[in-house]
Amino acid sequence: MGNCDGRCTLVAICSLQLMAALQRQVFDFLGYQWAPILANFLQIMAVILGIFGTVQFRSRYLILYAVWLVLWVGWNSFIICFYLEVGHLSQDRDFLMTFNTSLHRSWWMEHGPGCLVTPVLDSRIAPDDHHVITVSGCLLDYQYIEVLSSALQVLLALFGIVYACYVSKVFQDDEDSFDFIGGFDSYGYQPPQKTSHLQLQPLYT
């Protein structure tokens, strides 16, 4: 039942998505990025649902997984636009990733490759529970690291949507071709008809 090639490929895609989501969840936790943390949690649940649907031949689970991936593509596209400050989006004004509860930025801002962090002492613009820093020497700015991470999520999601729809169609075709578990309909089985050996005789008076 089902196409092993499509199923195996979908399981591999889901595994890559799960690893990418877990890796992203760790760094978003470190950066106090609450909105991505919530979205990553939903992504992890959806990927687990997709793996279960693939292994257990559940086409409905794969449909739900594919629908979520469409929303996941939209969310990651928004993140790309946010960090590239497309349109009226601004990282200095909009703290959407933390639900406007803090001034924290991406963890990669201070811990990017080659970044040198220098604290600014006695800064008057810093709130009481924050400090001002300067970051220099980064080989790749944190905005582009976040953009590349989201682009990878979009790429995996697109492959996941295609293969989820394909495998779900295969499962549905297999279910339609197998009418009954016993296979009676396929072999033209007809149940025996009841015959009566009793004959009615007219009653003469």
Automatic annotation (TrEMBL):
The record, for Pfam families, names:
NKAIN
Q: State the name under which the record lists this protein.
A: Sodium/potassium-transporting ATPase subunit beta-1-interacting protein
User: Got a GO cellular component term for this one?
Assistant: plasma membrane
Q: What kind of membrane protein is this, topologically? A: Multi-pass membrane protein
Biological process according to GO: regulation of sodium ion transport
> What is said about its interaction partners and assembly?
Interacts with atp1b1 C-terminus.
Q: Which family does it belong to?
A: Belongs to the NKAIN family.
Q: Cell wall biogenesis/degradation as a keyword?
A: no
Transmembrane annotation, as ranges: 34-55, 62-86, 147-166
Where does it localize? Cell membrane
UniProt keyword terms in alphabetical order: Cell membrane, Glycoprotein, Membrane, Transmembrane, Transmembrane helix
